[in-house]
Design goal:
alpha/beta, three-stranded antiparallel beta sheet, globular
Length: 367
């Protein structure tokens, strides 16, 4: 039900089109994170205006509040959110790391962050919940250890992720959720040999697309490039490749350079809520006093900026007095900026000048 067509290539970087039963979207693509079926401070209409193609929602949170059955009764996530674009649901694997649940071969047992109740998430239950949610792309349940972790911990995560992936695939094929495709996840920390071993085991099971998980979880940026490249060169060229949880401009551009197609991260929206904006000059923290009398726009280089009508001085004022309009406006700006980066990256690949484009990004973001 899913296909990937490569439309351009420049070195290791590629542009393409992902087609699903819902429609298609172009890559490289960035997916805003709407953990609880909404991107913080924004509406579905805002996302449409920004040109978002795919939004990420979280299985763990939605199975607890409001509950997958309630969402299914409302017609699934698309109808619930009034969103006609694609939705990718994470399986809850990141929560396996961040909430430190009890892990065994059966699944992950944790306490709800909402009411303290105890729940066990299994590979099969993650499939069932995502089927009820009705997302377009469902992720398998994986084990995502923080970095740095001892090698035996990474090895155990690789083994359990592979075992859970096989069970998740069998459950998915048995259930056959209409219109939904499933991605497998490669783990392995920053160990190249473990990454390759995990990729082999994931490929042997066979999925509609492939994700690289367990990076950007505590390691240095320079540590992830070699294991990332080792994985992408093993993944099929006719399947999309998704790097989970990575969203800073430099890491995105380096991952595109080794063939990654899809990204998600809370970084642009989280930065906005704390008064930091992404610009062609790098990050700007608007709470800095130097912006109090700055009448310029957030980024003069960003055409059609949804925040372009307001000055840095005005937006700083809103932040300093706690007006919630500030975080909404800055969130719109940061996502528009990232979408512009992805569009410029796709164009650079198509025009065979990706290396020059990447060098320009590094010149700003490595400072």
């Amino acid at each position: 039900m899913l296909s990937f067509t490569e439309t351009a290539r420049c070195g290791g970087a590629r542009a393409g089109e992902v087609c699903t039963p819902r429609g298609s979207f172009v890559t490289p693509a960035f997916m805003p994170v709407g953990t609880r079926a909404a991107v913080r401070t924004l509406t579905s209409a805002d996302l449409e205006d920004l040109g978002a193609a795919v939004v990420l929602a979280n299985t763990y949170h939605l199975m607890l509040r409001p509950g997958a059955e309630l969402v299914a009764e409302r017609g699934g996530l698309h109808r619930f959110m009034d969103w006609s674009g694609h939705i990718l649901t994470d399986s809850g694997g990141y929560q396996v790391m961040s909430l430190e649940p009890k892990l065994d071969d059966e699944g992950a047992t944790f306490r709800s962050t909402y009411d303290g109740s105890t729940h066990t998430l299994t590979p099969e239950l993650a499939v069932e919940v995502q089927a009820l949610l009705g997302s377009d792309i469902a992720m398998v349940l994986d084990v995502c250890p923080p970095l740095p972790s001892p090698r035996p911990v990474i090895e155990a995560a690789v083994d359990r992720t592979a075992a859970w992936a096989a069970r998740a695939r069998a459950a998915y094929l048995s259930l056959s959720p209409p219109g939904q495709v499933q991605f497998g996840i490669v783990q392995g920390g920053v160990e190249v040999d473990l990454r390759r071993a995990s990729a082999v085991r994931t490929l042997e099971i066979g999925f509609d697309g492939y994700a690289i998980g367990g990076l950007s979880v505590g390691e240095e940026r320079h540590e992830r490039q070699e294991p990332l490249a080792a994985v992408t060169e093993m993944l099929p060229t006719d399947r999309p490749r998704y790097l989970m949880g990575v969203g800073d401009p430099l890491s995105i551009i380096e991952a595109v350079g080794v063939g990654v197609d899809m990204f998600d991260c809370v970084l642009p929206t989280r930065l906005a809520r704390h008064g930091t904006v992404l610009t062609s000059e790098g990050r700007l923290n608007l709470t800095n006093a130097r912006f109090a009398r700055d009448d310029g726009p957030l980024d003069p280089a960003l055409v059609n900026d949804p925040a372009g009508r307001w000055s840095r001085a005005y937006l700083r004022h809103l932040l300093m007095v706690g007006e919630t309009a500030a975080t909404r406006i800055l969130t719109l700006h940061n996502l528009a900026w990232v979408f512009h980066l992805m569009e410029a990256t796709r164009r650079a690949i198509a025009e065979s000048r990706f290396e020059a484009h990447a060098a320009a990004i590094r010149a700003v973001w490595e400072r």
